[in-house]
Amino acid sequence: MKNDMDLLKKQLKDNIQKLIDSDDLKDARQIVEQYKGTDKGDIEAYSMDAVILIMENKFDEAQEVLREGLNIDESNFDLNYNLGYIYEQKKNFRQALWYYNRALHNCGDENAVKEINQIMKKIQKEHNTKLIDDRKKIIFFDKGDDKFIWDIINELSEEYETRHIRVTNYKQIDEGMQWADICWFEWCDELVGYGSKLLIAKEKKIICRIHGYEVYSDFIREPNWKNVNDLIIVAPHIRRIFEENTRNIDKGNLRIHTVFCGINVDKYPLNIKKKGYNLGYLGYINFKKNIPLTLDIFKKLHDIDSRYKLYIAGQFQDARTLAYFQYFIKEYKLDKSVVFEGWQNEKQKIEWFKKIDYMVISSIDEGLCFAAAESMVSGIKPILHNCEGIKDHYDKKYIFNSVDEAVKMITEEKYDSREYRKFIQDKYSLDKENFYITKVLDRLNEGELK
C-alpha cells in the first residue's frame, strides 16, 4: 500500500514538473494544490507551488507558501533559497541576505555554494547591506483562522525570524514556545489558555490579540494573564467588554492596547463605480451578521425595482440562519434575484468586487469589519448597520438606523468610489496597524523578560 502511494506521489510530481517545463502554470498549480491536500508534510510540494507563483510574478503569494513550508522544515535549502530570491526581487536586501545565508548553511552542492556566495557578496557591495544573523524569534499560533495575521507576519519578518503554526495538537505549542523569544497568540482561545499556563511561559514574552467573539465567551477567563505581557484588542467596545468581564481576575502587569486592524490597500484595485443595482454580502454568515435584516432591505428594494440583485459570497455557520435564508427566498419568490456564490478565495474575491455596487453589513456587533473595508478600497459604497462598534470606525454618513434609511442610501444619486477608498487609506492602512504593533514590540523588547 505504501509503495503504491509513493509511486502515485512520484507520478504526480513528474506531471507537475512537466507542466512547469511547458509553461502550463495554471494546470500545474491545480495539481500542486491537490497534492498538498493529500500530503501536507511533503516539502517538495511547497517548493514547486512557490516556483510556479514566482514564475507568475506573484511574490507575495509565493512568500506565504514558502513560510508555510519552512514551518515544517526550516532548514530546507530550496525554500530558503527561493525566499531569499523573492526578497532580493522586492529589494529587501537585508532579508535576502538572511535567507540566502540559511540556504548556504544547508547546501550540499559546491556549485550552488559558490553561486550563493557570489550573490551575497554582490548584494553587500552594491547595496551596502550587512548580514545580521542574531534576530529575535517570534512565533504566531492559531487554529487556522489566520487571514488577519499574514500581512503582520510579512512586515515583522524584516526584523524578526518568524514562524507561523496552525496548531492541531498542544505539543506544537510546547515546541514553538521553546524555540521563540516572543510568542503571539492570534486569538484569545484555548491555545493561549494552554500556553500561558506552561512553566516556560514565565520565561517568554507573550502577546495575545483579541478580535471580538472571545469577550463574549469564557475563553477570556482561561489564560494565566500574569504570564502575558501584552494584550492587543482591535476595537474600543471590545476592550471595554473585556475589562468589565475580567475585572475580578488578577491580570498582573498585563498591558492592554487598542490597535485597529489595517488593510493592505495595494491588494485591491480601485473600480470606479456609480449608482447601480447589485448588493453584496461577503464573509461568514451567523447570528452576529444579522442576515434577516439584509434580506428585509433587499426585499424592499426589489419591490421598488426588480432589477436589484443580492449576491452573497460566504459560508453559513448556523443551521437556523440557513433555514431562515432558504425560507425567505422561497416565501417571497426571490430565487432568481438572490444569488448564493459560496466562499471566495483572495483572487475570486477581487473579481467578485467588480460586479458589486453596495456592500450591505447588517451586523449586531462589529469592529473594522474587513468586508466593509475591503469593499470600500475597491470602490464600493458601504451600507452599514448602526451597531455597537461601527461608529468607532466609520463616518455616520455610511451608517443606517432602519430599513428605510438603508433603502434611501442605496437609491440616492450620491456615489463616490474614490472617497470610499480614501477613507480606508487615511484611517485604516496596513502601515498604521504595523506602526502601532511595532511600538508594542519595541516596548516589549526593552529591559528584562518580565
The run of helices and strands is: HHHHHHHEHEHEHEEHEEHEHEHEHEEHHH
Number of strands: 12
User: What would you give as the CATH superfamily of the largest domain?
Assistant: Glycogen Phosphorylase B
Largest sheet: 6 strands, parallel
How much strand?
5-15%
Number of helices: 18
Strand order of the largest sheet: 2-1-3-4-5-6
Distance between the termini: 53 Å
What is the top-level CATH class of the largest domain?
Answer: Alpha Beta
Organism: Clostridium autoethanogenum DSM 10061
GO molecular function: glycosyltransferase activity
InterPro entries: Glyco_trans_1, TPR-like_helical_dom_sf, TPR_rpt
Keywords: Glycosyltransferase, Transferase
Q: Mind sketching the topology for me?
A:
Elements: H1 2-21, H2 25-38, H3 43-55, H4 59-72, H5 77-89, H6 93-104, H7 110-127, E1 137-142, H8 150-156, E2 161-166, H9 171-179, E3 182-185, H10 190-195, E4 205-210, E5 230-233, H11 236-245, E6 255-258, E7 278-285, H12 291-304, E8 309-316, H13 319-331, E9 338-340, H14 346-353, E10 358-361, H15 370-377, E11 381-385, E12 399-400, H16 403-411, H17 417-427, H18 430-445
Parallel strand pairs: 1-2, 1-3, 3-4, 4-5, 5-6, 7-8, 7-10, 8-9, 10-11, 11-12
Domain Glycosyl transferase family: 269-393
InterPro entries: Glyco_trans_1, TPR-like_helical_dom_sf, TPR_rpt
Organism: Clostridium autoethanogenum DSM 10061
